[in-house]
Amino acid sequence: MISDRINRFFSRRRATLIGVGPMSKNCVDAAIELAHEHNIPLFLIASRRQIECQEFGGGYVEGWSTEAFAKYVSSRDKKGRTILARDHGGPWQNTFEIEGEFSLRQAMESTKRSFEVDIKCGFEMIHIDPSVSIHGPLKISDVIDRVFELYEFCWSIARNQKRDIMFEIGTEEQSGGIQSLQELEYTLSETQKYCKKNRLPLPKFVVVQTGTRTMEMRNVGTFDSPFRIKHELPAEIQIPRILNLCSQHNIYIKEHNADYLSDEALEWHPRLGIHAANVAPAFGTAESIAFARLLRSNGLNKELDEFIALSVASGKWRKWMSPESTASDFDRAIIAGHYVFATEPFRALKEKLSSILAKNGTSLDSVLKQAVRESIGRYLKAFRLVEVRNAN
């Protein structure tokens, strides 16, 4: 069982598992290769915007539907090292539910259909996150009620399909500060009571705020801050308290938004005992930076301008901007690059560039995939997922 597999891993090693956002085909391929080479479990965490069921039009990553994505990963991951995971599954976590102004009931039913396809396609971890609402603020009790409805639905589907799944719960909102112990205690206590009453398995992971927050191409949370934050305990004091609380409820902690943290901050994760962390935008920007550098180094400035214009025009960079942003169009293009990788204009541009570079003996996708491998590899080393040998 997948739950037992995770338990065995943590019983043998003090390390932090990584959840890799499937930002592109190159990113997925890099993640699978690294999981095979180092014989480690690795989560592929797909949001509903990135990967969605065929019925709802698929996602922006490669245009993949859930069905196509699962089939692709299965065809490449012959050793079963990667774990397909739904990230932020919940109502209004997909653009069409927001644009369609779905009611709560419509959005919940849509979410259930999405989850059902996930489970049938072999997703082994389901993150239930109904914290988004287009109809006004939510109380924590509302969020928990929606978690329970979706939790029971997913477990029922899994049992009927004879599928092995585990659950992750927790909110999407990342303030950049440290988790409130009182709110976490309430969430875990209510969840444990519900699971016991309804004979459901306990969730395997809970998302906690450890002081991480991603904006532009940096982490602006408190985890990586060299300064003490007023009225907030430092991570090295508060996180052990969070871990102790979660241990009492037999649940592992999961950090989101670990992008762009320094090596030192990443190395603290296994030391503190953080069980898993998600990284996504950083791998998309790594590929976009490599793409831009390759074009510049080969004098393909006209084509680079085309990429910048296409990426900036997408507007996908807006959600990542800080209020005081001084980002250039180049910066915006790098931030939003992965959103346009699957568009027809970019595909046409990439095909043209691949042909040009091939004449010089350069494989465009090999260069891009290597850049993502190196970016993922930094986390694998810091998280103690791979052995770092001393050069001496």
Structural notes for this entry:
The structure is a single chain. The protein is of the alpha/beta class and 392 residues long. The protein has 2 domains: 2-280, TIM Barrel (Alpha-Beta Barrel); 283-374, no CATH class. Helix content is 51%, strand content 10%. The protein contains 14 helices and 10 strands. It is globular, with a radius of gyration of 21 Å. The two termini are 41 Å apart.
Quick tags:
single chain, 392 residues, alpha/beta, TIM Barrel, 14 helices, 10% strand, globular
Main sheet makeup: 8 strands, parallel, barrel
Oligomer: single chain
- Give the uncertain stretches in residue-range form: none
What is the CATH-assigned architecture of the largest domain? Answer: Alpha-Beta Barrel
How many domains? The number is 2
What integer value in Å does the Rg equal? 21 Å
Percent of residues in beta strands: 5-15%
CATH topology of the largest domain: TIM Barrel
Order of helices and strands: HEHEHEHHEHEHEEEHEHEHHHHH
Shape: globular
> What is the residue-averaged pLDDT?
93
What's the CATH class of the largest domain, please? Answer: Alpha Beta
Strand order of the largest sheet: 1-2-3-4-5-6-9-10
Helix content: 40-55%
Number of strands: 10
Write the CATH homologous superfamily of the largest domain. Answer: Aldolase class I
Please tally the helical runs, counting DSSP H or I stretches of 4 or more residues: 14
**Helix/strand/pairing class, anyone?**
alpha/beta
Kindly summarize this structure in a few lines.
51% of the residues lie in helices and 10% in strands. The protein has 392 residues and is an alpha/beta fold. Helix 7 (181-198) links the parallel strand 5 and strand 6.
